TrEMBL record:
<dbReference type="InterPro" id="IPR001282">
    <property type="entry name" value="G6P_DH"/>
</dbReference>
<dbReference type="GO" id="GO:0005829">
    <property type="term" value="C:cytosol"/>
</dbReference>
<comment type="pathway">
    <text>Carbohydrate degradation; pentose phosphate pathway; D-ribulose 5-phosphate from D-glucose 6-phosphate (oxidative stage): step 1/3.</text>
</comment>
<feature type="domain" description="Glucose-6-phosphate dehydrogenase C-terminal">
    <location>
        <begin position="180"/>
        <end position="453"/>
    </location>
</feature>
<keyword id="KW-0521">NADP</keyword>
<dbReference type="GO" id="GO:0009051">
    <property type="term" value="P:pentose-phosphate shunt, oxidative branch"/>
</dbReference>
<dbReference type="GO" id="GO:0050661">
    <property type="term" value="F:NADP binding"/>
</dbReference>
<dbReference type="Pfam" id="PF00479">
    <property type="entry name" value="G6PD_N"/>
</dbReference>
<dbReference type="GO" id="GO:0006006">
    <property type="term" value="P:glucose metabolic process"/>
</dbReference>
<keyword id="KW-0560">Oxidoreductase</keyword>
<keyword id="KW-0119">Carbohydrate metabolism</keyword>
<dbReference type="InterPro" id="IPR022674">
    <property type="entry name" value="G6P_DH_NAD-bd"/>
</dbReference>
<protein>
    <recommendedName>
        <fullName>Glucose-6-phosphate 1-dehydrogenase</fullName>
    </recommendedName>
</protein>
<dbReference type="Pfam" id="PF02781">
    <property type="entry name" value="G6PD_C"/>
</dbReference>
<dbReference type="InterPro" id="IPR036291">
    <property type="entry name" value="NAD(P)-bd_dom_sf"/>
</dbReference>
<keyword id="KW-0313">Glucose metabolism</keyword>
<dbReference type="GO" id="GO:0004345">
    <property type="term" value="F:glucose-6-phosphate dehydrogenase activity"/>
</dbReference>
Length: 459
């Protein structure tokens, strides 16, 4: 087999938190699992960063992942950091020329408005043939901006070489949804409106802003989590069976189901809230509006919920509730599929009142099947038995999984342009209703489960 070309991973925005916290560790787990990969890592950002500081960051990630000495040495030999403003055409041209690379991946670890400026620059100066663009979420900040960005990036490289990154798509449980849904008969037979009453995708976090107010306060929970990650998860739960797990089949099926999805009444079917002072896991948490970097006038929500309807023969009438928030009292990162009650439970049984459900846990990976069964001892008393299973996690961190796919030019784990637009199309009416103040911005105490009257605060 011909040797693979060396890929240069050029990280724009490399001095930021995302690179140190997620990208470099992701690259490192990839190199631990596949030390034969020929990869050069170059960081660039407007901020000056000492060469030793950058090398130290790379080395720390390689050491933490226990990458083999030979593979780590190969990366460290060539890695470097360049202080450059990538929105400046001359600076970016010089940076790309200095890479002398066989194959280039440009990774945008940048806020959406800077990503757009850099893409405009790339359109002017051009990129080496075969270049891949890997763009972090959120992809744009509205339907209109996502459309413009799609048009822009596909003037630089073809769609197949645009990787809209969503690290959730590298989560094993999320990928395992495909096996769970399509490779066993048990679930396939009851995966539709005839059997399922409601689906919830919940992503409750205990973390607060983690020094990301600059990004988060401009976006809020709906844009940060629901518009991207949770709608993608919903699509995998709801999509039609595919003939193959090939890129075209998978991404077509995701887009098709997203096209059928909508928030029927954005005022009745959305909620927003932000946290007030409280305590999370023993840590005091200040009022959101008092967090450093937050502009209280923006009215940013830290907890959001929407109810989506999928208008097709499989799902019509089944609510898909998507919720995510920060500074909550407990972590819930799961999807819950509630089955309808049986058509008839024989008279004489007692204790049958909890819906049977299938719970898919994203962190840690696993699932639970809650089934109504006969109680222990007393034969005519019903209770719920929980069957638990682990879902195979992989050797890679989600970012490693996603980066591996980028380096292999396999777009299955990336969001296609039309799907990115559909996600914005779904949330846009909600954003509009919120802008018009048609939905009140409620409050919840940090450390609680959210406003008490929200149904999703209890399940
Ligand atoms: O993309 C994001 O995801 C994280 C949650 O993902 P996890 O893998 O850490 O569970 C979220 O905290 C962050 O705000 C968001 O930007």
């Amino acid at each position: 087999m011909a040797p693979q070309p060396t890929t240069t991973l050029l990280i724009l925005g490399a001095s930021g938190d995302l690179t140190a916290r997620l990208l470099l560790p992701g690259v490192s787990t990839l190199l631990r699992a596949e030390p034969e990969r020929r990869l050069r890592v170059v960081g660039a950002d407007v901020r000056e960063l000492d060469a030793a500081d950058w090398r130290g960051r790379v080395q720390t990630a390689l050491d933490a992942a226990e990458v083999s000495p030979a593979a780590a040495a190969a990366v460290l030999e060539h890695t470097r950091y360049v202080a450059a403003d990538a929105t400046d055409g001359d600076a970016l041209r010089a940076l790309i020329a200095s890479l002398e690379c066989e194959r280039l991946v440009i990774y945008f670890a940048l806020p959406p408005h800077v990503t757009r400026l850099v893409c405009e620059t790339l359109e002017r100066i051009g990129v080496p043939s075969g270049t891949i663009l890997a763009i972090e979420k959120p992809f744009g900040d509205s339907l209109a901006s996502a459309r413009e960005l799609n048009a822009l990036v596909t003037r630089i490289v073809p769609e197949q070489r645009v990787f809209r990154i969503d690290h959730f798509l590298g989560l094993h449980t999320v990928l395992n949804l495909l096996g769970l849904r399509f490779a066993n008969r048990l679930l396939q037979g009851s995966w539709d409106r005839g059997s399922i009453e409601r689906v919830e995708v919940l992503y409750d976090e205990t973390v607060t802003l983690e020094d990301r107010a600059g990004y988060y306060d401009r976006n809020g929970a709906l844009r940060d989590m629901i518009q991207s990650h949770l709608l993608q998860i919903m699509a995998l739960i709801a999509m039609e069976p595919v003939a193959t797990v090939g890129e075209r089949d998978l991404r077509d099926a995701v887009s098709t189901v997203l096209r059928a999805a909508r928030v029927v009444d954005p005022v009745r079917h959305s909620r927003r809230a932000r946290y007030t002072a409280g305590s999370v896991e023993g840590r005091p948490v200040p009022d959101y509006t008092g967090e450093p970097g937050v502009d209280p006038a923006r009215g940013t929500e830290t907890l959001a919920e929407i109810e989506v309807e999928i208008a097709n023969a499989r799902w019509a009438g089944v609510p898909f509730v998507l919720r995510s928030g920060k500074s909550l009292g407990g972590v819930r990162k799961r999807a819950i599929v509630y089955w309808r009650p049986p058509a008839h439970v024989p008279d004489g049984f007692r204790g049958h009142d909890t819906a049977d459900r299938f719970v898919i846990d994203f962190k840690p990976d696993g699932f639970e099947l809650h089934l109504t069964t006969n109680g222990k001892g007393e034969p005519f008393t019903l209770e719920q038995t929980v069957l638990r299973g682990e879902l195979g996690g992989g050797a890679l961190l989600p970012y490693g999984e996603v980066l591996g796919a980028i380096l292999d030019a396999d777009p299955r784990l990336a969001v296609r342009g039309d799907a990115a637009e559909e996600c914005w199309r779904i949330v846009e009416p909600v954003l509009e209703a919120w802008r018009a103040d048609a939905v009140p911005l409620e409050e919840y105490e940090a450390g609680s489960r959210g406003p008490r009257h929200w149904a999703s605060s209890g399940s």
